[in-house]
Design goal:
By secondary structure, the protein is of the alpha+beta class. The chain is about 20% helix and about 35% strand.
Amino acid sequence: MVNRTVRVAILSIVSVVAMTASACGSSPKPCAGVGVTSQIGVMFLERGYNDLEGASYKLCAGDRCVKGHVEQADITHLTLPLPDDVDPDVGTVRFRVTPRGSGSPEIDASSDVKLTRQSDGCGGGAYNRGLAFTKEGGLTTKIPPSVSTAWREHIKSLASPSESR
């Protein structure tokens, strides 16, 4: 039993070392940001809107778009993946939400955006930007306190009762 435990521990250490080495190339230190990806994220605060459950959304930047359906929630996080070689001057980001059964969007907002670089700690990195949408403030790169609070409450609600103490 001890030999098997030692073997499992050694294999785990070898796996971590191999993963770190492959992700960081020749860097002698572990990479803090392994998995950093180019993307635009939007925190969508649904307060002030009537039933948007099942509404379709479309989030676009340049010629890249992502589509989906809104779930009934106080706040939703939407992500638009971007290619690694994206131009940081991505230009206009457009966010539209069309209620189920409607032919026209209830929300049609846009904002000019410049992406920021996030290092992976090993010489690489990615470009990304976070935005928020509220009925009062529209689509903005400045995250309002109401959005931060709603997101924090959402994350707390996902924790199991023993973890939220």
